Fold each of these.
Amino acid sequence: MSPTRTRTREPDQACAEAVDLARDAVAAAVGAGDVGAHLGVQAEGERIVTHLFASGDPAYAGWRWAVTVTRAPRSKVVTVSETVLLPGPEALLAPDWVPWQDRLRPGDLGVGDLLP
């Protein structure tokens, strides 16, 4: 049996320093005005880092842009893997979906009421 290597979850230095690349990726998609402050960096794996930015859109208060960047082994060139808008801890979320059979109770509908 071969020994198992344990890797630290320290962010890759080149990827962690690519804040401007990550910000530019979001700005290209939604506009520079919708990208807020840089909130931090998370190590996702070996040479894979996610940068978090506050959303500047008032409709998405508490949400964060997450931009994952990576680089090939022995390369210094960092590239963008994906960009996504995610809810943060203070984000306003829609309530859980409830099926129609659980929403409607006897007496909720009367004569002449129509369902969509």
Note: The mean pLDDT is 89.
Amino acid sequence: MNKYKLLILICFFLITITLPKVTASVNSMDLLGKVIILDSGHGGVDAGATGNQIIEKDLNLILTRKLEKELVSRGATVYLTREDDKDLSTTTINRKRSDLYNRAKYINKISPNMYITNSSWRGLQVFYTTKNEENKLIAETITNHLKESISNVREIKKDNTYYMYKHITSPGVLIEAGFISNPNDSYLLRNKEYQDKLISSISDSIEIYFQKK
């Protein structure tokens, strides 16, 4: 009887090692523990640029919401500076400056691992300031990865003139998604497949940046 039991065990073992391996497909959680703030430019009375069937404040929020969903699916904790059509101004005098100051104040209060500001009026380009030494690396990482899947990507640009970014201590960048006034860019920015490709590429590049850390 013991011989039969041993034979059965040997057969079971041989069958097991010859079976194809099956792996479960799960969502990537590479951003687990990372806190990211997404700042959707403009809002409320500040519509931003308009043209070719696009209002910048609306497009910014659409892209921000898509990016939020993608980053959360990868494990990140995501905060938004605005979740609907409004700005962050607390005064009607110097409203724009108040809005920008309160965005910076909110980001500093959360103190995220990264912030991303989304805007749409100067072509697909990433801007950074020297306020934080990590900003240039973030800009380079995002830009280099975008170039692998999107053709109209410009080189990164340093710009220390922005009022808002002078007050933010956390690392981050401004991503300009495209020229609203350009018919080709406008067509792409209204295309869901292009939006999804852009969001996926940005999310991948954020993962790549943190993998380098």
Note: The two ends are 60 Å apart (CA to CA).
Amino acid sequence: MTESQIGARVRLETSAGNMTLELLPGIAPKHVENFVKLSKDGFYDGTKFHRVVTGFMVQGGDPNTKTDNERSWGTGGPGWSVDAEFNDMHHERGVVSMARSSDPNSAGSQFFLMHGEAEFLDGNYTAFGRIVDGFEVLDSIANAETMQSAGGENSKPLEPVTIHKAVVEEA
């Protein structure tokens, strides 16, 4: 990765501690631009990590998690979508990638942080950054006790982990 391929950093201040993400516009410029805009606008502030799968990933960024209607968690977004920017980045521990529906061009605000390795995501989900500080926070969230969510999956953290603030640190 060259210096010109590295963009802003975003510090996620969470109830479990802080993580710093390094964003990579050289491989996914539209996704980086979208994530930075949402962060600067305060969109992520107050959202929860609503899906946690130890050894796989933790997912957040859904504005519906600011409500008590857990049935809607995992379905929210910013009101627009970003077309896929599939790239060669391998989905391994620390990679930041965008969640989406079955439509490859449906990414909006939800993102996930890789806790383990998942080769099957490569080329199918847009990776756009990596954690550079706060791996112990990732581990804490990923290893949280979970319960069955309204959607039926056993991945909802028993104790909510909230993003208090997403702070953009320009490159």
Note: Helices lie at 29-40, 135-142.
